[in-house]
Amino acid sequence: MSDHIDHLLTETRRFAPPQELRGASATSDELYDRAKQDRLGFWAEQARELQWETPFTEVLDWQPPHAKWFHDGTLNVAVNCLDRHVDAGNGDRVAFHWEGEPGDRRTLTYADMTAEVKRLANVLEGLGVRAGDRVAIYLPMLPEAIAAMLACARIGAVHTAVFGGFSPSNLRGRIDDAGATLVITTDGAWRKGKVFPLKPTVDEALREPGHGVRNVLVVKRGENEIDWDDSRDTWYHEAMAAAPAEHVAQAFPAEHPLFILYTSGTTGRPKGILHTSAGYLTQTSFTHRHVFDLKPESDVYWCTADIGWVTGHSYIVYGPMANGTTQVMHEGTFDTPTPERPWQIIERYGVTTFYTAPTAIRTFMKLGRQHTQSSDLSSLRVLGTVGEPINPEAWVWYREVIGGGTTPVVDTWWQTETGAIMISALAAVTTLKPGSAQVPIPGIEVDVLDDSGQPVADGDGGLLVATEPWPSMLRGIWGDEERYRETYWEKFGDKYFAGDGARKDEDGEIWLLGRVDDVMNVSGHRLSTAEIESSLVAHDGVAEAAVVGATDATTGQAVVAFVILKQSASRDHTIEEAEQILREHVAKDIGAIARPRQVFIVPDLPKTRSGKIMRRLLRDLAEGRALGDTTTLADQGVVDAIQQQFRGA
Ligand code: WTA
After folding, report:
1. Other Cβ atoms within 10 Å of 264 Cβ, number
2. How far does the centroid of ligand 1 lie from the alpha carbon of residue 467, in Å?
3. Helices (H), 158-210
4. What's the whole-model pTM score?
């Protein structure tokens, strides 16, 4: 991380927006003024872009740390994302150009998606799902995943999407915490040239009794062999064929829960972040329009996130669909069958707007620009990134090689908790600084504070906070009010503590410096050190474990574990075997994304005299750096022994 920060601090290049964008979106500039004059009035105007059943009369009710936005209004989120566009005469507009990994394709218009969601709403109701019930969605990038989310929204059920790479125990943990009664999954889906089974993971997750799941709805995709439980399992296509086509949507209050999405925190247990309806939809659609300078009639937008993460929720499903956007959706990985794949897709559909993660950009860089050159990328006019700080080199490469040296690159900072983009350039307006997320979007107030809660001076670093509530903010942690208060509001009172370090530059613009807590960011995915540590110590052979996020040139950070084995385990296995066994153990227990890059078997762990593991020193060791301050170390011999071992390796 420190190299990366040094680069950020010396970056001085600037890129003005292209003239043609500026002219077209002059109004974006005025949004800042409007929001400054009357912040709540500004958000009310944005909210009125949605279709309301009952208009709201109050904008914000703020009882820190609880906000209600537009709360006496009612609307239906799915109607806003679907029926509204059909009613406006845009039913023939393509909603999704879907590309399966083996090369099969589907085109779904807004009319098609609306029809699918109406039927599915009937299916869900037929299976006994009612407003407020929770539905777990364990699906990869299939159009049915989008339909599943919107069908829940249509009937007021609360979805909780679980990333398809998560293990049975992780899926079960989320099902139980949310109290889900239905799971929607698939037999399997394509990934890296093979069918990756998902239904068996659901079966495994539900094997032990004690859960509340009554039905499992299964999308047929992989055509792989799966077990079937007649009392519980239903094929999606069969249920859809039997369901009525019409479905009358009912409006729900603005603050009706929309979804729960689990994310890693500083303790071992993931937090169920709760989002509600109208405020969330207002800010996701507003930011999607203005950050990306959206032209819904002509743009083809491709966000490469998985719908199991918040970026998929906010910038594939809700924001873009509320805006009637035409999108590309892709199953599988970018390097299958060849590394030309993403660029061929951009050429095929004339993608104008591409939104991806720094880790993907660094992977493209590593593979080399030759892969991009056989495709025509001239349709691209706006590029975006999200998920972790982007190093200026990757930013400039992205603009030059993918963007032909002319496209703006917007670096968007936000979190599962914030629901929508908070800090970002606006493509048509802002003069860009590579590596900086720059300025809060209109209507958002953030600051960088020192530990005592005072704003830092321009040029200094500190902790990032949101100083005012915002429409798409989390409404709580599912079932855990105490943790909600403690995590986000204890530190600075009624200011939201994001958990990120940041620096204000001489212009007062914001540069993100990474997490300040024990959360790692691996390929843009949040992982908790505590969660991986508890997985490691749950293994029979492990006496103690410490996990750190070490800087990695491609994935941003990588999981590195230091493990003390029990005597028996040291006897039965070589060190290499033990390391391999433990890497696989974590991958199986949590999911492949959590598999440590390295496991080091060590005789002891460096601790302070009060017994706290000194992760800072472990990070230094993992990154091959000279050790920082060791004065609080209880026993210098411990790090000497580890260093010895590192030199030996
Ligand atoms: C990090 C993803 C720097 C940050 C939308 C945050 C970023 C965490 C950026 C949230 C960015 C996200 N620049 N860091 N543009 N975007 N982050 O909840 O540390 O998966 O706290 O949401 O990712 O990750 P989450």
Report:
1. 24
2. 18
3. 168-178, 199-205
4. 0.93
Element (H, E) at 450: none
Looking at the structure, give the CATH architecture of the domain made up of residues 523-648: 2-Layer Sandwich (3.30)
19-116+126-209+255-502 CATH: 3.40.50.12780
Give 576 Cα–ligand 1 centroid separation in angstroms: 34
Say which residue the tokens 């009710």 belong to. Answer: 61
- Residue 217 CA, distance from chain mean position: 25
Dihedral over Cα of 534, 535, 538, 539: its sign: negative
CA of 512 to the centre of ligand 1 (A): 9
Alpha-carbon 447 to chain mean position: 23
Q: Name residue 601's amino acid.
A: I
Strands annotated E in 467-507? 476-477, 496-504
Please give the Cα distance from 286 to 62 (Å, whole number): 21
Mean pLDDT by 10 residues, the chain (649 residues): 57 87 65 96 98 98 98 98 98 98 97 98 98 98 98 98 94 97 97 96 98 98 98 98 98 98 86 98 98 97 97 98 98 94 98 96 92 96 95 95 97 98 96 96 97 95 97 98 97 96 95 90 90 92 93 93 90 91 96 94 86 86 84 84 76
pLDDT of 1 reads 42
pLDDT given at position 390:
92
Q: How far apart are CA 106 and CA 119, in angstroms?
A: 19
User: What is the complex's ipTM, to 2 decimals?
Assistant: 0.99
Alpha-carbon dihedral 390, 391, 395, 397, rounded to 10 degrees? -130
Asked if residue 414 has its Cβ within 6 Å of ligand 1, the reply is yes
Residue 200, CA distances (Å) to 101, 187, 207, 589 in order: 21, 8, 10, 15
- Angle, to 10 degrees, between the axis of helix 636-648 and the axis of helix 615-622? 20
Q: What does the pLDDT read at residue 21?
A: 76
pLDDT at 612: 81
| β pairing state of 461-466 and 446-449 | antiparallel
Evaluate: CB of 520 within 6 angstroms of ligand 1: no
Two tokens at 309?
């993460």
For residue 387 and ligand 1, the question of a CB distance below 6 A is answered with: yes
Q: Which residues contact 629 (CB under 8 A, 6 or more apart)?
A: none
Residue 310 and residue 256: Cα distance in Å, rounded?
A: 18
The span from the CA of 301 to the CA of 354, in Å, is 6
CB 274 within 8 A of CB 261: no
| Residue 75 to residue 252: CA distance in whole angstroms | 5
Residue 629's H or E segment, with its range, is none
CB atoms within 10 A of CB 485: 15
- Residue 388 Cβ inside 6 Å of ligand 1? The answer reads yes
Please tell me the distance from the alpha carbon of residue 530 to that of residue 31, in angstroms, as a whole number: 42
Tell me the domain boundaries of the chain: 19-116+126-209+255-502, 523-648
Asked if residue 73 lies in contact with residue 54, where contact means CB atoms within 8 angstroms, the answer is yes
